[in-house]
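Render this sequence as a predicted structure.
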Amino acid sequence: MPAPAPWIGATVRASGGPLVWLTALAMAVAVYLVAIASGRGDLLVAGGLALAVPLLFAIRLEAGVLLIVIARPTLDIFADRSFASVGGLQLNPASALALLVIAIGVPYMIERAGDLRRAPGIYPYLAFAAIAAIGIPVAPVFGSAATEWFRLTSILVIYALAYLSATTRAAVGRLLAAVLLSALLPVAVGLVQLERGGTRQIGDYHRLTGTFLHPDPYGIYLSLIVVAAAAVALGSRSGWRWLAALAFFASGVALIGSYTRTGWVMVGIGLLALGLVRYRWLLLAVPLAAVLALTAIPATSGRFNDISNPTVQATTRRPGNSFNSRIQLWRDNLPYARQKPITGQGLNFIVERTSNNAHVHSDYVRALVETGMFGFVAYIVLLLTALGGSVWAMVKTRRVQSRLLRVAALVGVATSVCYILASGDSNLMTQVAVSGTAWALFACAHAAGRVASDLAEPRPLSGLEQRRMSLRARTGIRSPQPPANPV
């Protein structure tokens, strides 16, 4: 029998397969057995509520992904509140959600490994996670290193599931919209804090934190939203254009109030990246806006003064705010990379070795010290694949008549440039609220490239799919027909 004609978008399951459902059932049994054996009603109630997440993923992958993308940036507000304790481990909503996503996400990744292979960042991310895991046994505090590794893995799973869920043009649009909507509560809380005069004083500044624990990750998260919203507002012609513009200005105000220099620079670099690849007028407008902000708003110019003034110190337990202090941190920690150049010192070594739990403020230095030279190379490759996959998507989306796919690819290019920059002087590697959002955006861009590629050059059905269709034809079972408008 001749092979059936290929089509786009054939037989993509919206729900989980047998392995996913078996895992969800096993999770339910385990939670209830532990709760009953311990005789704790709080654990029984909390476990029952938490099981709604894997159940949602099993029923419909995209619904679970959208829930995680929207909710995760808000959950850090509960970071210091635990709803249950298991074996001495305090579970808060963010940590419980990370464990649930990993538990239900890995079976999805196994079941759909064939589709996942096309994700540009999946192999580098798996390699980096595997290398980081090797250093856990040699870490100074095993539990701390394992916790950091689970955070790293949860970001990987978010990227993989987001990529798998965005199988059509409409799904790509929903994922992009979910990322922008995730800023609703963080921005609203930040604006309320702004009206009240800020929530956290660092140095001479009352800085906004929104739903985050510290203004720096809050500002970096907002900068990703601002750049993504700018790309959507400039590239879209629908009603989303005005909603994106609103998100741009509201997030921008909150970003200014966070006094996060890295976030400010990220926005400038991201908008310049948009200017280089699409909107040339931004190459002139962005420098002019930066000069205007530095001259007209004293607080912004004052925030950059300590970069050149090493005597300025923040009144916190952490190193001073000047860039010189961060350079000193890098110099203090880099020698540890020579002690264990292969395995590294183990995740969270830099924090554990200091009496005040000071971070190194550079993922590059952290990758080298804590995961060794192979981990450092893997991390650099990982960041480059985020950008390279988005550039590839931008090339592919130019060949199809879809403004939405082109905007999604453009968002990936601009935000990946921002993320690579921020990773140089920030702690993003295991910061789930920030990096989870960033990698969801990269997954959206990479999926847009895949959808566009399949539109331009439809892939033939695999041998297994052809045999299934042949069997259906012989038995008289009608084969599913391609949708009239698959994207």
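Summary. Residues 112-457 form one domain. The first helix runs from residue 18 to 38.
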